[in-house]
Amino acid sequence: MNAVRLRFAPSPTGFLHVGGARTALFNWLLARHRGGAFLLRIEDTDRQRSTQAYTDAILDAMTWLGLDWDEGPGIGGPHGPYYQMERLDRYHEAADRLLSGGRAYPCFCPPRAEAEATEDLEPETPVRADCRCAEMDPAERQRRVAEGPHAVRFATPKDGEIELEDLIHGSVRFERKEIVDFIILKADGVPTYNFACVVDDAAMCITHVIRGDDHLSNTPKQVLLYEALGLDLPRFGHIPMILGPDKKRLSKRHGAVSLQQFREDGYLPEALVNYIARLGWAHGDEEIFGRQELIAAFDLDGVGKSACVFDYAKLEWLNGEWIRRLGAAEMARRVRPLWEGRGWIGPDESGERLEGIASTLVERARTLVELADKARFYFDVPFPWDGEARAKFLTDSNRPILAALAERLGALREWSHDAIEAAFRQLAADRGVKPGAVIQPVRVALTGSTVSPGMFEVVQWLGRERTLARLEEAIVAIADSART
Ligand code: GLU
After folding, report:
1. What distance in Å separates the CA atoms of residue 436 and residue 442, rounded to the nearest whole number?
2. Pocket-testing residue among 193, 200, 239, ligand 1, by greatest number of atoms within 8 A of Cβ
3. What is the CATH architecture of 387-483?
4. CA 188 to CA 183: how far, in whole Å?
């Protein structure tokens, strides 16, 4: 059996969103699972809506997710992606073949007004409803062709049915007569989606076209084009929609949808790949899948027909699990740019200390951003004091405890977790109080709040100097409030 060849073909008319990322991921996984090729093709023929910034954002998101592509134009150079606007010759050549075989005809209708344009047809596509170009007298046609640029319309065969075995939906049928003659090349020489897609999928020897089922209505048009061009059909599989929690199509109303947004919100690519893979693909009860496990397990037989719901809470949970799986050292490495960006650390801050700080936060954090923010008190930046905590714990009666602890910590020979813990416990024992009676006021003094990671770790990674300075500050603050 020949190796499979798959592709992801985004239009750079927006950011990569969850739906597109899932299509990319399923194609990539299938290619990797079956030892085939995965191609990336930027479908940039919608000149009005495509931008370089969107292209860059899509490539960035693909790279961030780790969805690497295998081939591209140019020999020996960095591979890919393919850009349709660099392949116009191929579409012209194919259109010429259809024209000379009588399977397409020139269309001279004026472009549609912007207001008339529907989603699948761009404004510069000629009007369709009253087009009579198919019946034009040959001499008249020749004269108009010689006059200048014109569009090309595909003459769709009108008899019979198209029956397809969709890899996900099973048998699907379409009436040929339902498919009106459609534009394949606009007057400016730029192909429309269906035409460019077929020419490229054939040229790139794509064996499986896996895409969202919003494209199901395009597939019969594409099948007719394959037939007219004498090309072999690939297999088609249309994956079901992703819905928001209210069962409406997932959109910005529901929360983040672009991969860029998830990244900014502190989600890890490992968690997104894991979560998105499970959107519409069933495989036992296991929740956590690493990349290699997904490659080993993924195939189309696990992909269901019905729409699935995007569960933000589950993604957040999974992200937390991945934070812990990847561990403190890796999290410190990833969160470092966030801390630097906030101006909390400089480039020479010790990696060991950052790993220590991260190790105190990974247990609870659900996102990288949360992990970054929660670390604020570790750095030399003002942090908010919780007024209630201060009133309750930074009191005259606790002042001697803070002072005594400062003295003992100041005298510690070794600054280690165990030595710090022993100092706390000894002080509590000496004063005949529970350890909590020492820990809580110290926690408020050091972190500004009654909730923080374990106190001994906090003290360890805050470091001696900062710890002593903050205890001193708290003692001064208590004295000041006693005076006023
Ligand atoms: N450019 C199309 C899109 O972004 C590709 C559809 C396909 O995969 O054929 O929806």
Report:
1. 10
2. 193
3. Orthogonal Bundle (1.10)
4. 12
Separation between Cα atoms, residue 411 and residue 343, nearest integer Å: 32
User: Cα(476)–Cα(481) distance, rounded to whole angstroms?
Assistant: 9
Q: Which of 5, 7, 11, 239 to mutate to test the pocket of ligand 1 (most atoms within 8 A of CB)?
A: 11
CATH homologous superfamily for the domain 5-85+242-312? HUPs (3.40.50.620)
How do residues 283-316 score in pLDDT, each as one tens digit? 988 999 999 999 999 999 999 999 999 999 999 9
The finding on whether 200 has its CB within 6 A of some atom of ligand 1 is no
Place of tokens 């500004």: 448
Count other C-beta atoms under 10 Å from residue 95's C-beta: 22
Global pTM? 0.93
CA 211 distance to own-chain centroid: 17
Domain residue ranges of the chain, discontinuous segments joined by +: 5-85+242-312, 87-239, 326-378, 387-483
Q: What gap in Å lies between CA 293 and CA 196, rounded to an integer?
A: 35
- Residue 21: name the closest of 257, 254, 315 by CA: 257
Give every CB contact of residue 1 below 8 A, 6+ residues apart in sequence: none
Angle between the N-to-C axes of helices 351-361 and 455-462, in degrees from 0 to 180, rounded to the nearest 10: 160
Fold type of domain 87-239: Rossmann fold (3.40.50)
Where does residue 417 rank: exposed (0-12), middle (13-18), buried (19+ CB within 10 A)? middle
3-state secondary structure of 248: coil
Smallest Cα–Cα separation from 438: which of 405, 460, 397, 468?
A: 405
434 is catalytic: no
Contact, 305 vs 169, CB < 8 A?
yes
Name the catalytic one among 252, 305, 314, 434.
Answer: 252
Task: Return d(Cα 10, Cα 14) in angstroms, integer.
Answer: 9
Residue with tokens 């034009």: 136
Tokens for 194, please give them.
């269906």
Which range among 51-65, 120-134, 402-416, 452-466 shows the weakest confidence by mean pLDDT?
120-134
Quick: pLDDT tens for 335-360.
Answer: 999 999 999 999 999 999 999 999 99
State whether the Cα torsion 303-309-314-319 is positive or negative. Answer: positive
**CATH fold of 326-378, please?**
Helicase, Ruva Protein; domain 3 (1.10.8)
